[in-house]
UniProtKB/TrEMBL annotation:
<dbReference type="GO" id="GO:0043565">
    <property type="term" value="F:sequence-specific DNA binding"/>
</dbReference>
<dbReference type="Pfam" id="PF12833">
    <property type="entry name" value="HTH_18"/>
</dbReference>
<dbReference type="InterPro" id="IPR029062">
    <property type="entry name" value="Class_I_gatase-like"/>
</dbReference>
<dbReference type="InterPro" id="IPR018060">
    <property type="entry name" value="HTH_AraC"/>
</dbReference>
<dbReference type="Pfam" id="PF01965">
    <property type="entry name" value="DJ-1_PfpI"/>
</dbReference>
<dbReference type="InterPro" id="IPR002818">
    <property type="entry name" value="DJ-1/PfpI"/>
</dbReference>
<dbReference type="InterPro" id="IPR052158">
    <property type="entry name" value="INH-QAR"/>
</dbReference>
<dbReference type="GO" id="GO:0003700">
    <property type="term" value="F:DNA-binding transcription factor activity"/>
</dbReference>
<dbReference type="InterPro" id="IPR009057">
    <property type="entry name" value="Homeodomain-like_sf"/>
</dbReference>
<feature type="domain" description="HTH araC/xylS-type">
    <location>
        <begin position="209"/>
        <end position="307"/>
    </location>
</feature>
<keyword id="KW-0804">Transcription</keyword>
<protein>
    <submittedName>
        <fullName>Transcriptional regulator</fullName>
    </submittedName>
</protein>
<keyword id="KW-0805">Transcription regulation</keyword>
Amino acid sequence: MRVAILSHPDVSLFELGCAVEIFALSRPEFEQWYEAEIVNLTNQAITTTGNIVMQTKYVTDLNDYDMLVVPSWPTRNTTIDALTASEVLHFSQQNKRIISFCSGAFLLGGLGLLDGKKATTHWAFESQFRARFPNVNYVSNVLYVFDGQYGCSAGSAAGLDLGLAVIRQDFGYAIANQVAKRLVVSAHRTGGQAQFVDTPMLHVPNQFSESLQWAKANLRQPITIDLMAQKANMSRRTFDRKFRASMSLTPQEWLVIQRTELAKGLLESESHNIEQLAVQAGFNSAESMRHHFRRIVGVSPTQYRDQFNREG
């Protein structure tokens, strides 16, 4: 898959770097990987954050690429140059995947590509984005969102989350995990932007963190929230309150998400039937796993296996 990472005079260096790290870094340990280039449609040197001047590949069209990454775009209401507008629209009409990091959604919104679609951007731009693009189904408090061929991430580092999600779609859970380890980031962060919005990060006690680590290591066993609270040396009420403040979701929902992630890995690597996999992932029953899997992942376990299982 050939990837075009779009650079322009207003590009953000950090978001551009995230796109390069995810898609353009050579990964010889994998048999198949992306072929990515940083391109521009303006034929000029680019001065970005910190007055760093870059020269990227000038192209007059995007026909040679299968996916387009828009790392950022000006949030002010400016005219989109004719070539960029025509090429991105043409790319979209070919039903090719387009993903945006942070303010990159403003380019897609400005071209009308997100009308009637789910989209997101950095929480600081939400009110501005909603006002300018009222026909977009804006999604708050998420790290990223997909709708058909389009994917949008929230601000800055959430581009890594979206990039890893794209890798999971294209190459599977195991390879996405390897890339995440190389990046020294979580393969799948839970929660949304609410944990970052104009509030300091809460101090998480060591015992609280250790309780979560213990739960993740024992997902296949029955785990009660009372036991997790006990491991954290907290009362149940204090534990629930701390969990919501730190993770923006309930302990029970967090457990379900962790078990769903475990089930995804098992579906890719194991040939056991769904009933056996449900037990291995810690669900009460196969029906429970199917329900939560479809709710969280968007497809059934069987559909997921058909798409990603490397054994078959």
